[in-house]
Amino acid sequence: MEKKRKDKNLVVQKYGGSSVADRRSIERVAERVISSAKRGKKIIVVVSAMGKSTDELISLAKKINPEPSDREMDMLVSTGEQISCSLLAMSIHKRGFGAVSFTGPQVGIITDTYHTQAKILKIETERIRQQLENKTIVIVAGFQGISTALEITTLGRGGSDLSAVALAVALGAETCEIYTDVEGIYTADPRKISDANKLSFISYDEMLELASAGAQVMHTRAVEVAKKFNVRLHVRSSFSKKEGTLIMGQTPLIEETVVRGITLTENEAKITICDVPDKPGIAAFVFDKLAKIGVNIDMIVQNVSRRKMTDISFTVSNKNLNKTIKKTEEIAAKIKAGKVNSNKNIAKILVVGIGMKSHSGVAARCFSVLAKNKINIDMISTSEISISCIVNKNIGKKALAVLHAEFGLGKGRRKKRER
Amino acid sequence: MEKKRKDKNLVVQKYGGSSVADRRSIERVAERVISSAKRGKKIIVVVSAMGKSTDELISLAKKINPEPSDREMDMLVSTGEQISCSLLAMSIHKRGFGAVSFTGPQVGIITDTYHTQAKILKIETERIRQQLENKTIVIVAGFQGISTALEITTLGRGGSDLSAVALAVALGAETCEIYTDVEGIYTADPRKISDANKLSFISYDEMLELASAGAQVMHTRAVEVAKKFNVRLHVRSSFSKKEGTLIMGQTPLIEETVVRGITLTENEAKITICDVPDKPGIAAFVFDKLAKIGVNIDMIVQNVSRRKMTDISFTVSNKNLNKTIKKTEEIAAKIKAGKVNSNKNIAKILVVGIGMKSHSGVAARCFSVLAKNKINIDMISTSEISISCIVNKNIGKKALAVLHAEFGLGKGRRKKRER
Q1: What is the Cα–Cα distance from B189 to B266, expressed in whole angstroms?
Q2: H-assigned helices in B111-251
Q3: Which of A305, B13, B59, B389 has the fewest CB atoms within 10 Å, i.e. the most exposed one?
Q4: B412: Cβ contacts below 8 Å, ≥ 6 apart
Q5: Do A64 and B152 touch (CB under 8 A)?
Q6: Is the pLDDT of residue B317 over 70?
Q7: How many CB atoms lie within 10 A of CB A380?
Q8: Cβ separation A75–B89 shorter than 8 A
Q9: How far apart are CA B105 and CA B84, in angstroms?
Q10: Residue B342 pairs with which residues in a beta bridge?
Q11: DSSP of B354-389, one letter per residue?
Q12: A56-87, pLDDT tens digit by residue?
């Protein structure tokens, strides 16, 4: 995809499954879209499948064949978005506005041939541009495209976000609005921290860190593409008129806010390979073998070696723990390492803030507030803009709370930091 | 479409909505398809949407917009067949056979641009042939195609039958098997005549007469195409192994059977325009105006005129009666005719048999057996191979029964007429 000159009058709006879950929701979306059209905007709407309809199709498929082919799964699940986009078009027509729905293949969202997790290669914009010129609202089925082999493909998790961002890039929209069932990005999960604060702005890099740690609002792939092509994302609720969170390159007031968000992840386990011979290429060997069984490794920590031996620790999702332990034990035997330990009793705290680049001592401040509260840290790893700590699971929520307070992220202090 | 040389090893099988209504049904179809594949056949399967799923989508759409656009309806309802064909492919894979599903647009079923009632213009066979050469079972979503304007279209009532017959023509299959929830074509509706007899053979023309009179098994358009390109149709049940009814050009034993089937239609009403001035073009004017309000006129009777006046009678489906009366009254005023009468209390008996062409006196035999049973005939019209009579609704079933017996169509006399 090439960078285009931005068209300020063009907006891409993406509505997730919860925003089009039933007839009433579809009608609410229609009204929302029309209110943007009345303000003179040219609008492209990207929709997900209705509510849980995709899950229902997958469940039916798995009853018929527990290991359905990826190609046929794409044929099957791509119908969900086709249904919601045609219904939305009808709802807009009912209100007297022009609209037309397109499937991914129809509109020319060209992907590679990796079914169920295809990557977008390019988007043909001709058909959309024609409709926009006629002042017609264009509705595109999210999550899907057509492969270079002319097969229907889907884009994997977060696929509709990706469709929306890629369309914004291809058509030169300045902003891509992501409508969801939460009001934006928060300093911490509001279900865990009652005074968590909605952010007005966040940078792409901060959002990428938060999304990787399981903030479900946006998938990393869409944020990466938005960053690469400098498309501003506006994450907001389809159930309210409030402004949400802008995800962008240069955020205002960035100097004042060292930490932007903190996440707590409680569904991971830690695995340690003890006494690994410290030779070049060992880590590569270990994680290459693990990648082949298809598990996502999260945090990896390897400390300096003593007596030509080291320990390698990493975390994985609990649901992949058993098969990962099994594979890790095979690997340990091959590389003549010691025994393999695992621990499900952990929580991961991730502290994110682009301000860390210019503010020293953030890590020290994290560790000392945890120490002051008698919270022991089991593993640490850091990046330029984030600090991850593993602690005991039973004190995970406490660790989240004390850090959230320490960096002044609660509502009480909002006025000081942001308008 | 051009005539092709027939491939005896190639078979098209079409399964209707009731044959793929749920998981178990889909699995039964998979086994049926595989058993044909094991006999060395190259197979193209055409499927309808699962059970009532299309009706459910239409009902949801009408709640959102009581008058949805035809284009968006096609986007919406075409998903039904896409779902059933991918699930069938998965079910065949599970059993260790190769299969691939295609949408109508994917496979190149090219139609005109009349949404919800498109006509097939041509079928590109390249993709199907490639798969058949690899011994892969090809599954095609019925009822749909892609228009010359690159839009998704659907083929209207009986559309999946039409897809199947058109594919049989395009690929040169000798037979097209139509799987449904009845065992074939009967001498009369078995729910109305208990000793109705399944026919082993019926000619295209006889089937066309029966289908027009509401025998729901096959739609006339598919039979017309089969006749034009001489594709043998085999209508049979997907729930049993029994042979069904072959629909073909030259049926065996045709000399012996004068009447092949009798239908009773009870959901029509009769409208009469009295005292119509007998001038050239009057009938054309009347039925042209009626066609424009989209009602299907069935039987039309106009007798010779007396004193430059005549009466014109016709029948319409009860559900269109009110709007047809209203329009007919407008027309009557315009042409300076007399009053318009209507009567819902009628039944139509249709007697069909290609043998009528060579046997004289069939009509007389009909009328006299009805007279002998004190059944008064209100209107009569005939074609080369059929006789239609309108009688009072309360004696419709009796008229059906006495005619069915008179022409020896009951099970008791089966052995005499057919092996």
Answers
A1: 13
A2: 126-133, 159-171, 204-212, 220-228
A3: B59
A4: B195
A5: no
A6: yes
A7: 14
A8: yes
A9: 16
A10: B271
A11: GGGGT-TTHHHHHHHHHHHTTPPP-EEEEETTEEEE
A12: 999 999 999 999 999 999 999 999 999 999 99
Task: State the first-to-last Cα distance of chain B, in angstroms, to the nearest integer.
Answer: 36
DSSP secondary structure code for residue B117 in this structure: S
CA distance readout (Å), B170 to A198, B36, B91, B119, B132? 61, 21, 27, 15, 14
Domains detected in chain A: 7-181 (3.40.1160.10)
- The CA angle B66-B72-B74, to the nearest 5 degrees, is 110
Write B36-39 long-range contacts (CB < 8 A, 24+): B36/B11, B37/B97, B37/B137
Closest CB to A72 among B26, B78, B89: B89
Residue A153 exposure: Cα atoms within 13 Å on the Cβ side:
24
What would the pLDDT profile of A136-149 be if each residue is shown by its tens digit?
A: 999 999 999 999 99
User: A125: closest CA among A95, A167, A154?
Assistant: A167
**Could you tell me the two tokens for A256?**
């004042």
For residue A419, pLDDT over 80 is answered with no
What CA–CA distance (Å, rounded) separates A247 from A263? 17
Q: Which of B80, B78, B57 is nearest to B147 (CA)?
A: B78
List, for residues A339-365, the tens digit of each pLDDT value.
999 999 999 999 999 888 777 788 889
Distance CA B289, CA B285 (A): 6
Largest Cα separation within chain B, whole Å, is 77
Helix residue ranges, H only, B213-361? 220-228, 282-292, 321-334
Closest CA to B218 of B206, B229, B409: B206
- Picking from B27, B73, B90, the nearest residue to A72 by CB comes out as B90
Structure tokens at A89: 């078009």
Q: What is the 3-state secondary structure (H, E, C) of B286-304?
A: HHHHHHHCCCCEEEEEECC
Residue B257 C-alpha, separation from nearest chain A C-alpha, in angstroms: 47
**CA separation for the pair B37, B132 (Å, rounded):** 11
Minimum distance, in Å, between the CA of residue A194 and any CA atom of chain B: 39
Residues A52 and A80: beta-carbon distance below 8 Å: no
pLDDT digits (tens, 9 = 90+) for A159-190: 999 999 999 999 999 899 999 888 999 999 88
Close Cβ partners of A292 (under 8 Å, ≥ 6 residues apart) = none
Q: For position A355, what pLDDT does the model report?
A: 81
Q: Any residues with CB less than 8 A from the CB of A100 and at least 6 apart, and which?
A: A89, A131, A136, A137, A138, A139, B71
Coil vs helix vs strand at B80? helix
Residue A301: both structure tokens together = 């920590």
Q: Please list the residues that pair with B269 across neighbouring strands.
A: B316
Beta-sheet pairing, A7-15 with B297-302: unpaired
Tokens of A253: 């007031």
Residues of B in contact with A94 (CB under 8 A): 64-65
CA atoms within 13 A on the CB side of A118: 34
Alpha-carbon distance of A225 to A204, in angstroms, equals 10
